[in-house]
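RECORD TYPE: protein structure
NAME: Glutamate dehydrogenase
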Amino acid sequence: MATHDLPSYLDPNHLGPWGTYLQQVDRVTPYLGPLARWAETLKRPKRTLIVDVPIELDNGEIAHFEGYRVQHNTSRGPGKGGVRFHQDVTLAEVMALSAWMSIKNAAINLPYGGAKGGVRVDPRQLSRGELERITRRYTSEIGIIIGPTKDIPAPDVNTNAQIMAWMMDTYSMNEGSTATGVVTGKPISLGGSLGRTEATGRGVFVAAGEAALRHGVNLRGSRVSIQGFGNVGSTAARLFHEAGAKVVAVQDHTGSIHCDAGIDIHDLLSHTQSHDGVAGYGAADAVDNADFWRLDCDILVPAALESQITAANAGDIKARIVVEGANGPTTPGADDILTERGVLIVPDVLANAGGVTVSYFEWVQDFSSFFWSEDEINQRLERIMREAFAAVWQVAADNKVSLRTAAFIVACTRILQAREVRGLYP
Ligand SMILES: NC(=O)c1ccc[n+]([C@@H]2O[C@H](COP(=O)([O-])OP(=O)(O)OC[C@H]3O[C@@H](n4cnc5c(N)ncnc54)[C@H](O)[C@@H]3O)[C@@H](O)[C@H]2O)c1
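PREDICTED:
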């Protein structure tokens, strides 16, 4: 019997990043051998929860926000993935992000499925009290499906350690016992892990180093452009800068800046701490956001949002290597253009896996109540990133495919093997 191509709750004309993900699955299916008969399971999230998040604003009004938690796949372990607060969050976006978490966790071989959450709100418009009330009500609403052995949220765009602390507290109060393992990316005082805040940016930097080594680029002295100067972008920028690379351009939601001689990242970090973003930074030139993509550089790190590198700007990109710090920054059309031009793309599911890797360390430390040193964490993180990179590189060479398709081959094989050996319930 034929099944429907798309779930009825999606609009085929507005699939957004979910459409990108579906194309990525189609590209990997021919490489899955007999497991391909299970591939349809990758195209449907296991569980999708949409919740209403009402709060009383400081001015006495009642406001309602839309919240989501999607568990894409839990064949290999509990759901794992961040929570995003952004005014443009949609169900299709959260679905795609949850699916990329399944792929990422399997590609790096962490014992997790994939999940993601979001609230459709611009947190910059909220007071601290309003932000806390939204976080707590959202956590209560999704409390029926999350838990340390069910689904473990973490920070993503516009969420941080404080928000994880409120989530952990809300869940624990509802459960009647302190459950530190329900979220990762917590403050250290609550069972957070050393190195977690920096982990994604550190992983991006390690992945860039591995790519540079194999693609004939000397990291020292190389020119790097970075879109996004938040948690991921700013950490990666600092590590590139400290390793002797020149960060020549940075773009964030406030604008784009450029300095051919290299930007002093420590100085830019102090600027962004006292301003809303990179705009207005005096020691670099302001450039048009559209021109950012045309700037000369060796390594480009998109570390902001999805669908930033498209068929419209891929032809202008000068970089020899693109390292995807963000999730889903490159559309399939742009992927093809860049690949044809010989640009090496290190895909998100590999490049930004450092965050979830240290989240995994945090979860393990919480369960055993035994905490590791920062050096131990960084060393284990770097080893896992390097080994995963080498394994994906080999699969790409063996099958003559891109690193993205190779990462999907590794991941989808692991997910579908688990699916097959577990069997369908009941
Ligand atoms: N935080 C993590 O551990 C983690 C892990 C894996 C992947 N990611 C991905 O990395 C990306 C960035 O996450 P983050 O945690 O650094 O978020 P963040 O909120 O700390 O930073 C986001 C950055 O993107 C910039 N930005 C937002 N809109 C923009 C626009 N339209 N144009 C240019 N810049 C814009 C913001 O100014 C900010 O500098 C996201 O795609 C996220 O899913 C994050």
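COMMENT: Residues 155-158, 200, 227-233, 251-253, 277, 303-305, 325-327, 352, 355 surround nicotinamide-adenine-dinucleotide (CB under 6 Å).
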